[in-house]
Amino acid sequence: MNVSTTKGTASVDPASFGKVGVLFGGRSAEREVSIMSGTGVLEALRSRGVDAHPFDPGTQSLAELAAQGFDRVFIALHGRYGEDGSLQGALEQLGIPYTGSGVMASSVGMDKITTKKIWKFDHIPTPDYIAIEPGTDLDEVLVSLGLPLIVKPPLEGSTIGITKVSQAEELKAAVELAAGFDAVVLAEEFVTGREFTVAVLGTGANARALPIVEIVAPEGNYDYQNKYFTDDTRYHCPAQLDPLLSEEIQRHAVNAYRALGCEGWGRIDVLVRESDMRPFLLEVNTSPGMTSHSLVPMAARALGISYEDLCLEILASARLKMAKV
Fold it and tell me: Which residues are known to be catalytic?
């Protein structure tokens, strides 16, 4: 499996990027983490001589964004209004090149139900699921998926609103919790096994996977707290896996990334079932975290790519996706 290199970004003249905006903060439930990501990216770019400036769409308007005169922007926003295609559409209208996926891929990638529909169609392994709408018979959900199962809002990230349902009587409350975020709720087959993530860099035929990271969370609970605010979660990179299984996981991750039309960079979360070591892809992150605990920088370090060089490579990929060639 081909892996990423920095492709000479370390030798790029920082002035060639022009005035760069680092977009972070925003209005989503992941605002706090986005601020940490964006602050790290801002400091990294500035350390390499890039004329980088912070911009928070959560407190500043699109008119202010247009007035800044940015030549390109690095999107370090997570969740709604930053990772879901809405901001990408605004940047296309403003003519400001940006990092990451375009409008469609961002929107589709943010919606776990739509993502799974596409992956199922393309024969990419993902756990079975049911979309729960008002009026859905919850007993039928239990019969179809069995217990335990996972209930989550399909348009949130960072494990927000997610519940592991182990008893039938817990399902109604889990659905109500997730419905507080999204009108349609995702119920998903629970896969018992090891948890991994695969960072992908590039676009189209040039997309390539970085080394796989294994996530070992306390009691198997990789929740919001254990993701970002504790040192109890352990990470192994490169993950200790049979080489053939590693190649299979990386191949699935790249195919899943391409199936959604992702660009620039992203991260695919994967479970490997304990009973038969079969991989199942859970979701894609089209604007992954860039905090001190984040997994894309960890995977890059395994290849000898520094955090600063990773930020430069991502920034170098910024472009308008809808512009005429």
Answer: 30, 158, 228, 267, 269, 283, 285, 289
Crossing angle of helices 86-94 and 103-110, in 10° steps, is 170
List pLDDT tens digits, range 136-185. 999 999 999 999 999 999 988 657 899 999 999 999 999 999 999 999 99
- Contacts of residue 45, defined as CB under 8 A and 6 or more positions apart, other chains included, come to 20, 22, 52, 74, 308, 311, 312, 315
pLDDT of residue 230: 58
Q: What is the pTM of this model?
A: 0.91
Tell me which residues of the chain have a pLDDT lower than 70.
1-11, 157-158, 219-231, 323-325
Task: Give rounded-to-5 percent helix, strand, coil for the chain.
Answer: 40, 20, 40
- In angstroms, rounded to a whole number, what is the distance separating the alpha carbons of residues 164 and 214? 21
CATH match for 129-189 among 3.40.50.80, 3.30.1490.20, 3.30.1490.110, 3.30.360.20: 3.30.1490.20
91 by DSSP, 3-state: which? helix
* Secondary structure (3-state) at 207: coil
Q: Which H or E run contains 288? A: none
Topology (CATH) of 9-100: Rossmann fold (3.40.50)
> In 3D, which of 199, 99, 217 has the Cα closest to residue 159?
217
- In terms of Cα–Cα distance, which of 12, 82, 99, 6 is closest to 48? 12
Q: Which residues make beta-bridge pairs with 194?
A: 272
Name the region of 204 (left: φ>0; alpha: ψ -120 to 50; beta: rest). left
Among 295, 172, 171, which residue's Cα sits nearest to residue 226? 295
What does the buried/exposed string (b/e) look like for 272-287 if buried means 16 or more CB atoms within 10 Å of the residue's CB? beeeeeebbbbbbbbb
Structure tokens at 21: 């905006």
Contact 280, 191 (CB under 8 A): yes
- The domain made up of 108-125+192-310 has a fold known as D-amino Acid Aminotransferase; Chain A, domain 1 (3.30.470)
List every span in the chain annotated with CATH 3.40.50.20.
9-100
